[in-house]
Amino acid sequence: MSPLTTIRTVAALREAVAGRRVALVPTMGALHEGHLSLVRRAREHADFVVASLFVNPAQFGPGEDFQAYPRDEARDADMLAAAGCDLLYAPAAGAMYPAGFSTKVSVEGLTEFMEGAVRPGHFQGVATVVAKLLIQCAPAFAVFGEKDFQQLAVIRRLALDLDLPVAILAGPIVREPDGLALSSRNVYLTSAQREIAPGLYETLRDAASQIARGEGIAEAEAQARRALLNLGFDAIDYVEARAASDLTRLGPAGPMNKPGRLLAAARLGRTRLLDNVPI
Amino acid sequence: MSPLTTIRTVAALREAVAGRRVALVPTMGALHEGHLSLVRRAREHADFVVASLFVNPAQFGPGEDFQAYPRDEARDADMLAAAGCDLLYAPAAGAMYPAGFSTKVSVEGLTEFMEGAVRPGHFQGVATVVAKLLIQCAPAFAVFGEKDFQQLAVIRRLALDLDLPVAILAGPIVREPDGLALSSRNVYLTSAQREIAPGLYETLRDAASQIARGEGIAEAEAQARRALLNLGFDAIDYVEARAASDLTRLGPAGPMNKPGRLLAAARLGRTRLLDNVPI
Questions:
Q1: What integer best gives the mean pLDDT of chain A?
Q2: CA-to-CA dists, residue B33 to A105, A194, A265, B176, angstroms
Q3: In this predicted structure, what is the pLDDT of residue A258?
Q4: Which of B54, B126, B162 has the most A C-beta neighbours within 10 Å, making it the best mutation to test the interface with A?
Q5: Helix (H, G, I), strand (E, B), or coil: what is residue A192?
Q6: Do the chains contact at B162 and A127, CB–CB below 8 Å?
Q7: Burial readout A121-158 (b: 16 or more C-beta within 10 A, e: otherwise)
Q8: Hey, are the CB atoms on B102 and A157 less than 8 Å from each other?
Q9: How far is B109 from chain A (nearest CA, A)?
Q10: Distance, in angstroms, between B251 CA and closest chain A CA?
Q11: Which residue of A has its CA nearest to B104?
Q12: How many Cβ atoms from other residues are within 10 Å of residue A78's Cβ?
């Protein structure tokens, strides 16, 4: 197959997408089958699929893995081309954040719990770069994965609030055969940690069934946290049942009145694993 | 002349501007000759001139004049039509900030002194609504007045940082025959205050000449503050000499190495007057 065209500037991007109905798949590279499923979903909606590759320093906190984050653009480009992507937009950090850059986009409310509480500033970094990418590319569609479920809610809110003329599409989580959600950070796991990791999904499914059966939400969450520690997870950042639509807290036990989502983040050594399941 | 077409929704705005090369003049209404000069400037650059009229609650602080701010849409529409405006976009507050609205745009640095120090949150309100207007209307040009000189710098930064494909144009201050800068808030002045008001411009011109002659900047600023109090101003929020390009503080006395601007805000009763002059 022909190598994927790669561009690095906003001007080149605008020229490439002018007059086209575009779907954008924003990524930080280190691609896996989850990303490729988003590219295929993008293909279903648009004639021209752009993937962006930008490891966004603004969404990493001090002490996080910005430097270590896996990077292999040539491999990513081959995978994208095979999945049907038309163009790779891979700007340099200096192009995205030139000297004097001063503007921040924040989403309040949705960013004040779970990932937002554990990673201060993370969602401001995400919101700012996603706003920039959506303005730069002006896509009709942008596709994000449900693995980062809270991020998806933040981006939907951002696009709505800023009147960006884009439809935000979600792609379901892609998993390993043993249930582990695909993540670029799974490469950090030791083989011992890799054996423990699928327990996150299993534990969430069990807890979601409990809640769906009408057992107490707080008790199901607490039990899931204990189960994860027993399985060998080193720390549990959160296990929370929330409304799938707006991430408000689900009420006390009783018949569910809206679709729920059970979301968790747990640590194996220094690696944080995120996962979520419908309730 | 034919009455000006007025629309109230983003959808109608997008339909009206589709395929056109547009210049946008954002206003809060209560129009005067200063605004009309911006409309005429817009006309020079674009085939289709849109004025927006939105008294943006987010940029008023508690205790400020949001409720009292003068509103007369019919008069504004007539003035805009006469000045060559093609379309008035006057959204309702509920359309701009629907229930659940959570996104804020902030510009750091530039907003931390002068108006930003006196009016906390003001520039976040301005940046958020201007980002929305620019995204809604997608104009090739947007025109702002130099009377709000710091706001202009904030908006230039915002447009650059968010990659908005718009050229920001500035219109010079329009003044009464006695030198008072036109402002929608001048109607608040009593006749006694109105007599004092032109002293702001005169004082700034004198101080700018002093600085241009090489006299000390800090001394010229302090002298201007004293002069304004002697003229009858009730309080001086600031008198500051800054670089016109990026509003950095001008260095100590000596030959000017970049174009400067002397900016001030002073109060007559509860009315704040802003003005600025080149150095």
A1: 95
A2: 34, 70, 58, 10
A3: 79
A4: B162
A5: helix
A6: no
A7: bbbbbbbbbbbbbbbbbbbbbbbbbbbbbbbbbbbbbb
A8: yes
A9: 7
A10: 20
A11: A106
A12: 15
pTM: 0.96
**How high is the ipTM of this complex?**
0.95
- Residues of chain A found within 8 Å of residue B157, distances taken between Cβ atoms: 100, 102-103
Taking alpha carbons only, the member of B48, B40, B54 closest to residue B9 is B54
Predicted local distance difference test score (pLDDT) of residue B3 = 82
Which residues have a Cβ under 8 Å from the Cβ of B158 and sit 6 or more positions away?
A103, B105, B107, B127, B130, B131, B164
- Mark B39-52 as b/e (b = at least 16 C-beta within 10 Å): bebbbebbebbbbb
Check pLDDT > 70 for residue A253. Answer: no
Q: How far apart are CA A55 and CA A45, in angstroms?
A: 26
For A238-277, the three-class secondary structure string (H helix, E strand, C coil) is EEEEEECCCCCECCCCCCCCCCEEEEEEEEECCEEEEEEE
A35 an active-site residue?
yes
Q: Of B230, B257, B253, B226, nearest to B239 (Cα)?
A: B226
pLDDT in tens, B28-74: 999 999 999 999 999 999 999 999 999 999 999 999 999 999 999 99
What pLDDT, on the 0 to 100 scale, is given for residue A2?
A: 60
> Region B166-180: what's the mean pLDDT?
98
Q: What is the reported pLDDT for A29?
A: 96
Between chains, do A163 and B127 touch, taking CB under 8 Å as contact? no
Catalytic: which of A32, A35, A45, A122?
Answer: A35
Chain centroid to Cα B206, Å, comes to 23
Categorize the per-residue pLDDT at B253 as very low, low, confident or very high, splitting at 50, 70 and 90. Answer: very low
Number of residues written out for chain A: 279
Q: Which of A14, A101, A162 sits opposite B103 (nearest CB)?
A: A162
pLDDT tens-digit series, residues A150-206: 999 999 999 999 999 999 999 999 999 999 999 999 999 999 999 999 999 999 999
Residue A112 to chain B, least CA–CA distance (Å) = 12
B131 and A100 in contact by Cβ < 8 A? no
Domains of chain A from N-terminus onward: 6-171 (3.40.50.620), 184-278 (3.30.1300.10)
Q: Is the dihedral of CA B222, B225, B226, B227 positive or negative?
A: positive
Question: Mind telling me the catalytic residues of B?
Answer: 35
